[in-house]
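Field reference: sequence -> structure
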Amino acid sequence: MESIDALTMLVGLAAGVALSAACGFRVFVPLLVAGVALRFEALPVQDDLAWLASTPALVTLGTASALEVGAYYVPRLDNLLDAVATPASVVAGILASAALFVGFDPLLQWTLAAVAGGSVAGGVQLGTVATRGVSTGLTGGLTNSLVSSGEALGALLLSVLAVVAPALAAALALVALALVLRRGRRGRVDPFLQSNLAAVAGGSGAGGVHLGTIGRTLRTARAGE
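Structure field:
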């Protein structure tokens, strides 16, 4: 593995956390922005995940992003999508952060990606679920399109900010997560969402250790070839 300087590692950490938070708003938009940034070498990337910048990946992510954003404007479908988006956002957050957490041992890389990336993405996403639930309950879904627009815009802006100002983007991401957790402690978030947030954190950590072990095994096997 090439020697990675500390500044590059810090930039990757900050950008990874920010992109993970953006995955809590929309699953595919941050991955698309990350892929484009990697394509133009605007961010560091782990060699194992450089495929995110490939043409087939960018086309697929672009198509998926358009479909996802549009689907959230369909009444009732938006609420159904939230059930799928929660686990999907965790996976996307882990993937986005792992791609940018450069210079780490594979076990540490994937563990950090799961604990930091997966938990941040899942926490933010559960916050959006709660917001849409309140919107649906108070207005019968009439304002859900405004919520969807805010989420899509948040995903895009935070993703772009992760590329041009990683430290600032990471700070904003952590503030957003802190607000969700604070509301949960005050009882303003449905207990079901609170339990899911705890499950996201626990499951992400366990998954990260498992993925890290796999990554280390594969890298060792490649080195021995």
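Note: The chain has a mean pLDDT of 83.
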